[in-house]
Amino acid sequence: MEQIIAKGAEAILVHKDDKLIKKRIKKSYRIQILDEKLRKSRTKKESKLLEKASKFIPTPKIISSNENNKEIIMEFINGKKLSTHLDSLPNAIEICNTIGKQIALLHDNDIIHGDLTTSNMILSKENKVYFIDFGLGFESKKPEDKAVDLHLIKQALEAKHFQNYKEFFSAILEGYKISKHHSLILNRLKKVEARGRYKQQTC
Ligand SMILES: Nc1ncnc2c1ncn2[C@@H]1O[C@H](COP(=O)(O)OP(=O)(O)O)[C@@H](O)[C@H]1O
Ligand SMILES: [Mg+2]
Predict the structure, then answer these.
(1) Given 3.40.50.2000, 3.90.1150.10, 3.40.930.10, 3.30.200.20, which CATH number is that of 2-75?
(2) Active-site choice (110, 115, 145, 149)
(3) In this predicted model, what pLDDT tens digit does every residue of 37-61 receive, in sequence order?
């Protein structure tokens, strides 16, 4: 049985058996040839990064990836999406600590997620935090890119979990201390915030 579980701005997500099919859909407002290119490159980039990230943190396993169809077939993760459950979980702080550690592991391996929000995290039945949706991700060694990634999760928490966001973000930073370069990145984060340029888009 097939079930559409999400239809976002970029992609349609179908749950079929124990699989998840993520297919990037045409955007009629984009020039067709550019749209093709963009969907193709994002599909390629996402599967490449998912593959790399899976060496360090829990991510859905890729079953197949087809740039020409703009389609990635991956393992379906049964669990709770953190955007809707984090506030009410008794171990929310511990989970945030894990999130911080996992961001550190990505960053220490030069993976920038690019869209760190709790909508892109699933808590599995085994209590693992899966990171998904690497479509805006990229590889970089730059402290600036890592700091902006942290700033994005801070803004996402502020928007979605405003009652708890300070405690949640502190727990994330606590977890992030396992990073080899955490003090450098945190200093950079202060600069990013002072500059105040990285406002998350809300539309
Ligand atoms: N591997 C997966 N297992 C279970 N659910 C998933 C999986 N991948 C995506 N989803 C669900 O589909 C939603 C949208 O997927 P996502 O990759 O974040 O696409 P978008 O680019 O549209 O945000 C997620 O928030 C999540 O609920
Ligand atoms: Mg998403």
Answers:
(1) 3.30.200.20
(2) 115
(3) 999 999 999 999 999 999 999 999 9
Q: Which of 15, 22, 152 to probe ligand 1 with, by most ligand atoms within 8 A of CB? A: 22
The CATH code for residues 79-195 is 1.10.510.10
Q: Where residue 195 falls among pLDDT bands split at 50, 70, 90? A: confident
Helices (H), 54-142: 82-85, 92-108
Global pTM value: 0.94
Please report, for the chain, the start and end positions of each structural domain, with discontinuous segments joined by +: 2-75, 79-195
What lies within 8 Å, CB to CB, of 69 at 6+ separation is 23
